[in-house]
Design brief:
- α3 runs antiparallel to α4 (221-237).
- A six-stranded antiparallel beta barrel has the order 4-5-6-13-12-11.
- It starts with a strand and ends in a 7-residue tail after the last helix.
- It has 275 residues and is of the alpha+beta class.
- The protein has six helices and 13 strands.
- It is 31% helix and 28% strand.
Length: 275
C-alpha cells in the first residue's frame, strides 16, 4: 500500500490514503534533488537515521501528490484529537506519496533548499513494494574533521589516491582508536607530499621521513614541521614505542593534533579551503 506524508499547520502526519497519524516529535524532512536532474521535481527525504561519525543518513523518499484532504475520522491527532470539525474533513497544506524514482548507486544528491543545501552520495537504494523507497546516503563533506578539499587543485594523476587517503582519515577520526587515526594521517601525508612535490618521491617508495627531509631541504620549514609532527606521533603510536622510547601511550588529543597537522598541509598546499 502506498505510503503518504502530509503537512498541516506545521505538523507532519504519515500513513495511507485510508488513515493518517501524527508523527511524534519534530521529524527531519528535507527537500531532495538528484544532481543534474531537470528542475521541477518536488521530492522530500524523511530521515529515519543519522550518524555524524560515519556520515551516514538513511530515510524514505516521497514525491508531491495532489491530495489535499483526508476524512477527519480517519486521522489520529494524538494527543489532541479534534472531533468538532463539522465538515468531517482534515485539510492539509501539502501531501507527498512514496516516490516513484529509484536513485542509482553513486548518484549525487542535494538535501535542503538550493540556498542552503548539502551534497550526499547514494550508497544504497531499496524499495519494499509500494510501501517505501529507502535510500542510504553518505556525506560528501568532511563534517568539520578536515577542511573541504579543492579537488580541482590536486594534480589529476594523484587525485584519486589523495582523496581516498583523506577519506580514510575522516572515516577513522570519529570512531577509531588514536593509533588508527594517526596511522591514517601518516598515510595521507605521504600521498599529499608526494603528489605536491613528485621529486620528493621519484620511485614512489619513500616513507614520510625522507619526504619531510625533502621539504626541509627545500626551505619549506613549516610544511616540514607539520609532516614531521605526524611522523613523530606515528612512531609513538607503535605497539612497542613505550618500551623502546619511554613515551606515553598516544591519546585522543594526539590524534586530533595529527589531523590538525594534516589540515595545515592541505591548506598550505592550496588543496583545501581556509576554514
Amino acid at each position: 500500500m502506498t505510503q503518504y506524508i502530509a503537512e498541516a499547520q506545521g505538523l507532519w502526519y504519515e500513513g495511507t490514503q485510508a488513515w493518517l497519524r501524527r508523527i511524534q516529535g519534530q521529524p527531519i524532512v528535507l527537500p531532495f534533488a538528484i544532481v543534474g536532474e531537470s528542475l521541477g521535481q518536488d521530492r522530500l527525504f524523511l530521515e529515519d537515521y543519522f550518524n555524524s561519525s560515519t556520515r551516514i543518513r538513511r530515510g524514505r523518499l516521497f514525491e508531491r501528490h495532489n491530495q489535499n484532504a483526508w476524512p477527519a475520522d480517519c486521522v489520529s491527532r494524538f494527543p489532541n484529537r479534534d472531533t468538532s470539525n463539522p465538515s468531517n474533513v482534515f485539510n492539509v497544506n501539502r501531501a507527498y506519496r512514496t516516490a516513484s524514482v529509484h536513485p542509482k548507486l553513486g548518484v549525487e544528491v542535494d538535501l535542503g533548499d538550493s540556498g542552503s543545501s548539502s551534497r550526499w552520495i547514494v550508497v544504497l537504494s531499496e524499495r519494499i513494494g509500494l510501501e517505501g523507497c529507502f535510500v542510504t546516503l553518505k556525506s560528501k563533506t568532511h563534517l568539520g574533521v578536515l577542511p573541504e578539499l579543492i579537488v580541482s587543485e590536486i594534480p589529476a594523476g594523484s587525485r584519486h589516491d589523495v582523496q581516498a587517503s583523506i577519506e580514510a582519515v575522516v572515516e577513522t577520526a570519529s570512531i577509531q582508536a588514536p593509533q588508527a587515526v594517526i596511522d591514517a594521517c601518516r598515510n595521507a601525508a605521504c600521498y599529499i607530499i608526494s603528489a605536491k612535490h613528485p621529486a620528493s618521491n621519484p620511485d614512489g617508495k619513500n616513507d614520510l621521513g625522507p619526504l619531510v627531509s625533502y621539504l626541509g631541504n627545500q626551505k619549506m620549514q613549516a610544511q616540514a614541521d607539520a609532516g614531521n609532527l605526524i611522523r613523530q606521533l606515528h612512531v609513538r603510536a607503535k605497539a612497542n614505542a613505550a618500551a623502546s622510547h619511554g613515551t606515553r601511550a598516544v591519546s585522543r588529543s594526539d590524534a586530533e593534533l595529527a589531523v590538525s597537522a594534516l589540515a595545515f598541509l592541505l591548506q598550505d598546499f592550496g588543496w583545501a579551503a581556509n576554514d
